[in-house]
């Protein structure tokens, strides 16, 4: 029993969560009301179902009535977004206690999310978390979905992470975070929130998978032919990567490739824990059979920057670790051939001090896509997680934006009014500067 | 290799160093000793000649440099289906050292693998395999009878693209043994028409059939047909009608309009697969020549993209497929489309038809202004009552970035039932905006064509109705455009701000009535100053008021309204709503 609790915080977290559980349910054959679709006519299918069922305990909890309830908690400081789930298609999938909302929103303000508004709801959230944790035989860890830019996502998450560390000190905490996109922005104070939350959660998170809206937006437009991608399209693409990452936890069997095992590989220093995510193939539904995606094709593709879910240039950095998570009809010898070919084609540069660095896993369950969605159903897919020093570019960009505003103390009063002090800003900024230096240092040769 | 040189080798598909070819000749080519194979390459640039050597014609090629002679031992005739599966999935029981060699290093770092061994063990159990992908695995035949059924009976999805299958017979042999087969991908194989017919039930479970880029060898059939091609085609066509196969997706060469044998493959395939739901026929040079009545009835998705020979007339023929939901037509030869008003247009039962047009060829064919093409095309689509989703990216109309937004609005306004455009949902608000804009944008045209706010006087010209079939409906929905809506906004320039005013002197009737243009922003003070210089009357004595032909006085307020006093010196003329053609009354 290695259960994982998912916590979805803020608008971004909840909307991703909605898409995420939609896909999980589809992959495990769970209907929107929580009942498993079974009684397949032939035995083989049944055997397969049993095989599948055996392991999704890690993400779903079975009630005595036979319903499967996601091990998930949705938290927001204001009700509108959560109400979307309460009234949506999957309303009966979740227990009402799993959907928590406050009354007053964080207004894109870290200080409100963390101090004034967030502190009112934190005890309730922890209690609900405890309840969910008590249903687990052996809790493995937490998966946290949130954005860096929003008030709830940044502020409340940092508060929750601190408290979770206090209560569940040994449990792994993985984050899937929406990083503020370089050019698309929803709030002017995003850089403040982002710097503050990164500072306060660095020591509490084990690994943060960052994605940014702009990168996914571009993929949707260019590769899927969606003229104006909505959050729904963006999230559906993003959860494909999330699903690939968590597939090893959800599908058991002799081939189980544990995420924790990969995580050990991915994080060489506790502070250097921001792997970049790439996913391939990304192909639109009407081209399903027009293009071919052999193992070597998708391997090559996931090293291209057009398949990355974060905007940064991996050629500018060195790799510390790289994990390839294959799914579907993939044969080991093809993987070996594909990686050997990658070696010839790409200048994948590793840091000197790392003895191995490349890790490959295969999960033989093919990826699933939402029927009627933008993505085509494919037989195989690969998700690449790579810890590269190139990601420092993203932090540098953010720090620069922070500095521009902070030099003039612009928008600062919103934070001071909620009880924060300027010293907190300075401290956070220094921490980020240190993070940039850390990345520089690990990239240096002996 | 001597056994491979039997005559039946002719027509077989072979692979030589990754290049695919068809064997056309086997035998001796003097003066060089030894057996030779004459092959026609798929890629005509690979060959050297057209099948003749030193004056002797050994075989014929479609392309003057499409042929080569090759020693039989250099040619790969492919393997059977089961061997290919074993090659790909079954773990070889090699010694441990072999395994070591498999470890790949990247730079000088070894690549760690997790769970490979157990995965390989699992995949080795062929009976559990459900999905088999054998792309580019040189499969050429079905192998021993019953062998496949015994080893891996549970296969549901098979990808046999880019293999060496030379005839449908082999495909049928394989499919016969796979009871559960649902998805079959035969792309990039050049398949000959089967000698026998398929057993009924061979493809009974098949739902998805992919035949992309299989039709390139239609000329192969011509070669085989030889001189009797015409008669044979007629013969084949006869029984087809007799057996009530009224569908035939014909393949017609650009040079030769006789249907080749391939077209009957498609047609017969469709008949074999009673439950077919998705059919992909990309890049096959298909021409649809007859209306399908008995087959293809269950098809939900039809991909006809990159078939340049399909034109608008052929679309009516598939218009009657009852279950068709999605139709992919990117890069086809359609340049315009027209559905007859009442008949076929309304019975096109496409539920959520997805026209994907992404051809850049249109510009080449069509030198119309974009707008003309656009109207006819999208207005015709409006006649499909169940069209819900439309994608039309990368075509001449939507290419320009600047106008992308505009085009989107126009498409939305022209197709009333559309719910999704370019994969983005059309929200009610967007539709409303688009339709209002459309109504306004073409208001003047509507006016000229005889449109009128009063329904009784509304006499629209046929031409306008044809160009804007939804306009009348939009007028009903939002009301006909009012005159003021249709006025075009003048750019903000002094020239456009001038008011033409008549200046009258009611008390001094001997003075001439003067007409003058004044800017609306001129203050009363300035007007008075100008008048005092003109009339040589002190400013303080001047009293200004104006009357407007629009102010038709009511009886009771006549006196107070028809002359509006301009009292405040600091206000402008516009403040008092002085308009063009008004009369300025000056008293002193």
Automatic annotation (TrEMBL), chain A:
UniProt keywords, alphabetically: Cytoplasm, Cytoskeleton, GTP-binding, Hydrolase, Magnesium, Metal-binding, Microtubule, Nucleotide-binding
Gene3D superfamilies: Helix hairpin bin, Tubulin/FtsZ, C-terminal domain, Tubulin/FtsZ, GTPase domain
GO cellular component assignments: microtubule
InterPro entries in the record: Alpha_tubulin, Tub_FtsZ_C, Tubulin, Tubulin/FtsZ-like_C, Tubulin/FtsZ_2-layer-sand-dom, Tubulin/FtsZ_GTPase_sf, Tubulin_C, Tubulin_CS
Tubulin/FtsZ 2-layer sandwich domain location: 255-400
PROSITE patterns for this protein: TUBULIN (PS00227)
Domain Tubulin/FtsZ GTPase: 56-253
Keyword GTP-binding belongs to the record: yes
One GO BP annotation of this record: microtubule-based process
Transmembrane parts of this sequence: none
Summary of the function given for this chain in its UniProt record: Tubulin is the major constituent of microtubules, a cylinder consisting of laterally associated linear protofilaments composed of alpha- and beta-tubulin heterodimers. Microtubules grow by the addition of GTP-tubulin dimers to the microtubule end, where a stabilizing cap forms. Below the cap, tubulin dimers are in GDP-bound state, owing to GTPase activity of alpha-tubulin.
Family: Belongs to the tubulin family.
Subunit and partners: Dimer of alpha and beta chains. A typical microtubule is a hollow water-filled tube with an outer diameter of 25 nm and an inner diameter of 15 nM. Alpha-beta heterodimers associate head-to-tail to form protofilaments running lengthwise along the microtubule wall with the beta-tubulin subunit facing the microtubule plus end conferring a structural polarity. Microtubules usually have 13 protofilaments but different protofilament numbers can be found in some organisms and specialized cells.
PANTHER family linked: TUBULIN
UniProt-recorded name of the protein: Tubulin alpha chain
From TrEMBL, chain B:
Ranges where the CAP-Gly domain occurs: 27-71
Protein name stated in the entry: Tubulin-specific chaperone E
GO biological process: adult locomotory behavior; developmental growth; mitotic spindle organization; muscle atrophy; peripheral nervous system neuron axonogenesis; post-chaperonin tubulin folding pathway; post-embryonic development
Keyword line: Chaperone, Cytoplasm, Cytoskeleton, Leucine-rich repeat, Repeat
GO CC annotations, alphabetized: cytoskeleton
InterPro entries reported for this sequence: CAP-Gly_dom_sf (IPR036859), CAP-Gly_domain (IPR000938), LRR_dom_sf (IPR032675), Ubiquitin-like_domsf (IPR029071), Ubl_TBCE (IPR044079)
Localization annotation: Cytoplasm, Cytoskeleton
Signal peptide positions on this chain: none
UniProt key word Repeat: yes
